Amino acid sequence: MALQDQAEFDAVIAADDKIEPTDWMPDGYRKTLIRQIGQHAHSEIIGMQPEGNWISRAPTLHRKAILIAKVQDEGGHGLYLYSAAETLGVTRDQLVAALHAGSHKYSSIFNYPTLNWADIGTIGWLVDGAAITNQVMLSRSSYGPYSRAMVRICKEESFHQRQGYELLIRLCEGSSEQKAMSQDSIDRWWWPALMMFGPHDSDSTHSAESTAWKIKRVSNDDLRQQFVDATVPQADYLGLHIPDPDLVWNEERGHYDFGPIDWEEFWQVVKGNGPLNRERLDHKRAAWDDGAWVREAAVAHAEKQAAREFESRRTA
Amino acid sequence: MAGLPTAELTGQTVDDEGLFRFLVGHADDNLVLAQRLGEWVSRAPELEEDLALANLALDHLGQARALFTYAAEVQGEGKDEDDLAFLRTEQEFTNKLLVEQPNGDFAQTMVRQMFFDAYQLILWEQLSEVADSRLAGIAAKANKEATYHFRHSSGWVVRLGDGTDESHRRTQRAVERLWRFTAELFESGEVDAAIGRGIADQAERWLSIAEGVLDEATLTIPDDPFQRSGGRAGAHTEHLGHLLSEMQWMQRTYPGLEW
Q: Which ipTM did the prediction report?
């Protein structure tokens, strides 16, 4: 029986078809997806904090509206992804508990602080840009619900990326203070953005299996290269300097060469020693704990209502 | 003269200055409330509420922007919505006091919202029928939003009031804190009466809506009859200055730039 199931699963993967929630799948495949989709959802949720940090201070009403809508979109992505994960037999509460307990990670990029208004543009341009590079690949992932979620999310992310870039265009056409803000921002976000693609292929723990299962279809290093190649001309257009002395166009490869990533920093942030790891998780846990009485009240009220309805039907 | 108001309905007319003050007052109500609601983002009791509160903030911000833009045109001094939002002082803000009250806990935010939503249901319904088609259009769109808002906030007030002992206690406390800011909602000047077809007459309607929700929520209206007022005259509680200093910080620090 199991052999037959495995053979069918393998055939679906080989044919580039989609695995659906009711299909048989290997335990490892299921576990990998729960981890990956859960972490993806957590990233959207934690990602609301660095940008939410500027909602109250957005410089114009138009920018404030764009920013609120964007942060709301991220919450929506989180909700959508939690639902995709639930098709694998895990509940949202379990996933959230894993986030709060620190046993599930989220994207390290959100452990960096937003320190000036340009950071809101840079997050759209670089962070969403890097995310899209990854997510376009994931929209071809072998798991149906994840792949379809990615198609929809990518559309909104592309919109966010253009909004972020447009914000920076405005700043870079502006005063010297605004240009300085933008340069300071790219100086702080460039390397963490490159780290978003994860370790080198040779050091990536989950990559081989994920590639075989066609959850992941392009390697970390190839995605990173794609991102650099697309982004450097955009920085040039803005007149911003990319903080990498080794960055140079390689005619022979047809790609940009770039300098070594500080993997020590990468692993430190993954381990919890980034600038704001503690604050991001504390913020989320506090919101959850502060809201406990609200969730309890909603349940208590629903139970009272049900009891009242039952009673009125019984006596009717 | 932009959009002559409803002289035929009330027998009164209003000049540009009066119309401007009217529009800005209501814009301020919405902007200040949007700013408060934005403070919730990423802090809500559950993910669905994070989305809902952000949505409320966006709706109120949208209403504020439409009103500010119209007000700036009526004023005719070449200003725009951002000049009005970011470059007026605390005393020049004329929002009603209810909306500047701090978020407090979720109960306080939902009670504040329910009181205000019930008011806006009536306000927008009235304004959607004024002769000034620009204002009527803004009101008609906002009226649909207010309907959703009220369904959301009144649903929560009922759930929290008639939930657990703790949620009941918190929600009753919120009602006691905020009740004294409710009479001001229907305290109308002459100009409001001229444009808004006499919104002051509607206080009874508001009371019956609010009482209906509080009854269902097993909550009681405080005995203390004291009511605060002064927002439309620029006399605020201490909370508004802090809200504005954060909201206006960029425009004040970097004056005259494009963003």
A: 0.95
